[in-house]
């Protein structure tokens, strides 16, 4: 017997488990270390001269942009997973 979208039931089960795991990762991400990270960052930045600070901030900014693009892709996929689950719930 085929699952949704012409897949085998095992594939549907695996897909559903993958979707639920991804949603759980997004919803339950622990941000406790964020405050500590920023405190340590401030201590490091205080000890640098202005030229090095500027270069480091440029580097960090580029890294943040790259990370944001990666996160956007994850969120897009999670959104699509939500649509798929919604579709399954209401068919």
Q: Which features does this protein show?
A:
mainly alpha; 3 helices; 91 residues
Q: Layout of helices and strands, plus pairs?
A:
Blueprint lengths: L8 H19 L5 H14 L3 H40 L2
Helix pairs in contact: 1-3
Q: Overall 3D geometry? A: elongated
Mean pLDDT: 81
Discrete helix count = 3
Query: What's the Cα radius of gyration?
Result: 21 Å
List low-confidence stretches.
none
How many strands in all? 0
Report the helical percentage: over 70%
Name the helix and strand elements from N-terminus to C-terminus, one letter apiece: HHH
Distance between the termini: 17 Å
SS strand fraction: under 5%
Let me know the largest β-sheet.
Answer: none
The secondary structure category is mainly alpha
Describe the overall structure.
By secondary structure, the protein is mostly helical. The chain is built from three helices and no strands. The protein has helices at 9-27, 33-46, 50-89. Helix 1 (9-27) crosses helix 3 (50-89). The two termini are 17 Å apart. The relative contact order is 0.11. The model has no long low-confidence stretch (mean pLDDT 81).
What is this entry, summarized?
By secondary structure, the chain is mostly helical.
């Amino acid at each position: 017997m085929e699952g949704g979208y012409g897949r085998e039931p095992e594939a549907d089960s695996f897909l559903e488990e993958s979707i639920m795991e991804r949603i759980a990762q997004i919803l339950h991400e622990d941000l406790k270390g964020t405050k500590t990270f920023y405190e340590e960052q401030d201590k490091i930045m205080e000890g640098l001269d202005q030229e090095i600070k500027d270069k480091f901030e440029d580097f960090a900014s580029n890294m943040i942009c790259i990370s944001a693009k990666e996160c956007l892709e994850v969120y897009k996929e999670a959104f699509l997973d939500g649509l798929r689950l919604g579709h399954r719930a209401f068919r």
